[in-house]
Amino acid sequence: MKATPLSNCERRFILRAVEERKRLDGRQCYDYRNVRISFGADYGCCIVELGKTRVLAQVSCELVPPKPNRPTEGILFFNLELSPMAAPGFEPGRQTDLLVKLNRLIERCLRNSKCIDTESLCVVAGEKVWQIRLDLHLLNHDGNIIDAASIAGIVALCHFRRPDVSVQGEEVTVYTPEERDPVPLSIHHMPICVSFAFFQQGTYLLVDPSEREERVMDGVLVIAMNKHREICTMQSSGGIMLIKDQVLRCSKITAVKVAEITELIQKALENDQKVRKEGGKFGFAESIPNQKITAFKMESAAVDTNDVEEQAEEIITKADPPSEVSAKPILHTPGTAQIGEGIENSWGDLEESDKEEAVEEEDESEVTALECQKMETEDTSTMKETKKDEPIVLSDSEEEEVVILEPQELPKKTRAQTNSKQENTSKKAFNKRRKKKRAA
Q1: What is the pLDDT of residues 231-248, one digit of tens each?
Q2: Half-sphere exposure in the Cβ direction for 349 (13 Å, CA)
């Protein structure tokens, strides 16, 4: 990721705020940003918002052959994508160091912690098992991607339902949701990541760093834990050396935050399941609050259609009388029309004036064409007279006779002068006729 670097002034300002135990968004040092969970119309789809950081999670499944070394276990596949839509510094289709680190952290948090019972995904041992695929897409980057991605991943896995399957001999039947209710995944616990940012070689500590705080921090510590206070994974990055007391303090803070987030996730899943059973509205569109400019829906309001005619008559009687309508439109200049409120349309008069001008132009073009023909005939007669006096040169060859004619340049000049005179006279006549029409 090639983000725009912070200036020295911004860097000093953030560090000074950290030293004074203040943050840019008004939080305390150990405060977590608000977590908001919204589900999609299908099972296994959700969006998690951690402040302004947004992550979309989607779970899918398919029947595949198992791995040779684990014939009775299902397959788990995790993929996180950082698109340019989230931040301009992300490049599509490129495996950056940050992306590789985040994918490894998610795999260790969800797969290595054994939070999902992979043996329950086996359909036929050694032949067919379920492959669960979790796709995470970063929609907006405002810091602490790993925490938002871990919450979105575990929520999508808990919300997902796979199709029911029956095995009779060697035949495997996969039922649709209309035939049989889908089956949820067997999840033992919910590992959730909590990130800690350290400044000035571990002297100052912040929970859930924002995007600007991540640029200034010296190092970060990520702890994945469940509500039973079992540490699933831990990773420290950056050039810092942490002592035992700092790690213990971070683990205690993690236990409190994980308990709060786990309770929030369970409430969100229960509410969604309750709405789906009752047949209510659910999905991303329904999670948008009403009475806002960005919402494309409004509550339906009843319209009273009683006494409509009486109300219309009252409005007509109280209204002002219409303005006077002029009988004839005013044509200020030929070739114009006048339209507007209380004035009749005069486009018909405009069309008639255009037709008259077109007829006059045709008559004038015919007159000028006749005059040009007369001048051409006169020019040809003068050319013939001049050619009679000039000698004719014959070639000495016996095969053919070649006649060389050398016309003078005087006829061209006279013709050009006459043409210019004709154009001037025609223009003067047209202008006179136009002035007469305007006067009339």
Answers
A1: 999 998 887 888 889 999
A2: 15
